[in-house]
Amino acid sequence: MKTDHTKSDQITNKIRSGSDKKHTRKKKTRKEMSWITSWLLIAMFMTGFSVLIVRSAYLGYSEVKRVVSTREVSHVVFSSNVMKAPEAAKNIYVASDGEDYEVAITVCNFEQMFMADYAKEQIIYDLTAELVQFDGTGYVSVGETLYREDGKTIKMFGIRQTGDNNQSVTNNTQNINGVSSISFNGQKLPGGGAMTDTFMLVFDGEEAQKEISEYFIRVTATPKNSNEVNGTVQEIGAVIGVSKGKTYAASWKGIVTETDESDYDAYNLQVTGSGSGIIDISWNSNYFAISDMFLMDTENHFVAANGTELEGNAAILSGGTGWSKVRLKVDSANQDNYEIQFFKTQGDAYKSDSGYQQSGISALIKADNYRSDN
Question: Taking the model in full, what pTM does it have?
Answer without folding.
Answer: 0.58
